Amino acid sequence: MILSKFNHKVEPKLKYFKADPFSGVPGNLFSLSIVPVVVLANHLHKLFPWPFHGLVQDIKKGQCTEWIMEKKYKESCEKILNHAKSHGFGIFNKLNHLAVKRSEQFRVQAARLISKLPSLSNGDLKRAYDAFLQIYTDKYGIGITTFLFEHILSERLHASLSARHEKAAMFIHQALHSRYKSFMTKSDEALLKIKREKNRRQKDKLVDSYLDEHFFSHTSYEYSPRMTKKRITELASKTVPSANRQKEQNQRIVFSLDSTEKHIIGLLKIAEAMRDLRKKINSIGNYTMFRFLDEASRRSGVPIKIAENIFYFEYAQLLDSPKTAAARAKRRRFCTVLFDGKRPRYFEQNVLKPNNPLKITEVKGTPASIGAGKIRAPAKIILAKSDFGKLRAGDVLITQMTRPNFLPIMKRAAAIVTDEGGLTSHAAIVSRELGIPCIVGTRYATKAFKNGELIEVNAHEGTVIKIG
Questions:
Q1: Could you give the domains of the chain?
Q2: What pLDDT does 2 receive?
Q3: Residue 44 contacts by C-beta under 8 Å, 6 or more apart in sequence?
Q4: CA 273/CA 113 separation, integer angstroms
Q5: Torsion of the alpha carbons at 444, 446, 447 and 448, rounded to the nearest 10
Q6: What are the tens digits of pLDDT across the range 119-169?
Q7: C-alpha separations of 458 from 6, 56, 377, 438 in Å
Q8: pLDDT tens digits for 357-374?
Q9: For residues 308 and 339, what is the distance between their CA atoms, to the nearest angstrom?
Q10: Separation of alpha carbons 444 and 454, rounded Å
Q11: Do 33 and 332 contact (CB within 8 A), yes or no?
């Protein structure tokens, strides 16, 4: 029982932890505070132990920065690669199979549970919440193994191949190309089908089907409005098909790969589906957590914008002592949630400091999708949903990492550049589906450029530069 293994509570600030800033995500404390428990769930499988993971939440801005220990992650990554070389991909295929099975089970369980919440007593609501989080963290924990190796192996593969061939990025694009459809693409296709259906009865059936299969698809760490038939109809009316992209015409490239490169490609191919399924489970879990929070907010009278600033383990207090919980949530400015290699820990301050000061000398990442190869267009820094309106058709979308709710603006972008991720990240998968250039894992793109600056994205070399 993962959640009962530790008595989670807010700790006094004892010291600073030194780590490496990795990326960030818009979100709130309630949904993000479960992440260290998810890491613990993965850690307890004892396949590839996690060294560290941290999140610092800026309550006022609704922005979270993500921290890792780069050196230790590379050590863990080496163990994963050596395991694949020695034992093959069996364990990874098993994890992938589990992720497929559990994501569907979880969807059905969550939908049934959500419908029951309004009728539960306070005591039953609290027990249902605890039981749900046990299931969520266990199912989510299976898939996050990819976070340990994906970005590091992506960088390593590109560096190894580009040292021998100028068209390394094109080869990687071809090697990882698959017919796999992300859950968000399936959601989008279902909405387009609803939009195009003229028969009223058939349209209603499609809406019902969407509500059953994709109710969670527009969820993020920020918040998730309750999915209703009316909302589905509105989403469908605004959904547009992907633009026809001008792709480079390239002949099939043949590379002679060494053993390490072959195993990296094998791991990344498996990671593509596993990472997307991990995000699917995450979206289902977040959607359900927010429905629990809605119910507690309604019963306690604490506004949702205050309630979302509690740690996940303070849910019972929100119901039992709403004034106390609300007063504490209002005082919070910065909070840290982390896994220190042994257990989850929670603080009401920022307790993370960088190992090395940030020095941006260039913006370079891993080419994840070639598209048209090179694109020159204005940069638009998109950190949250509130920024979506900034991006116009033909702009370059620069963000910390894309999430399912980014799909509408990803369709408008001429290219995508992310701070985080590897060749099987959400941005990489969707960009290949859309046929647009994408560079991932740049670390600092969101800090290096300003809105409106003309930039060049070179998806062959993995570089992003300012023009003029």
A1: 2-150+262-354 (no CATH), 183-238 (no CATH), 366-466 (3.50.30.10)
A2: 47
A3: 2, 141
A4: 26
A5: 80
A6: 999 999 999 999 999 999 988 877 788 888 999 999 999 999 988 887 888
A7: 48, 32, 12, 9
A8: 666 667 899 999 988 889
A9: 21
A10: 17
A11: no
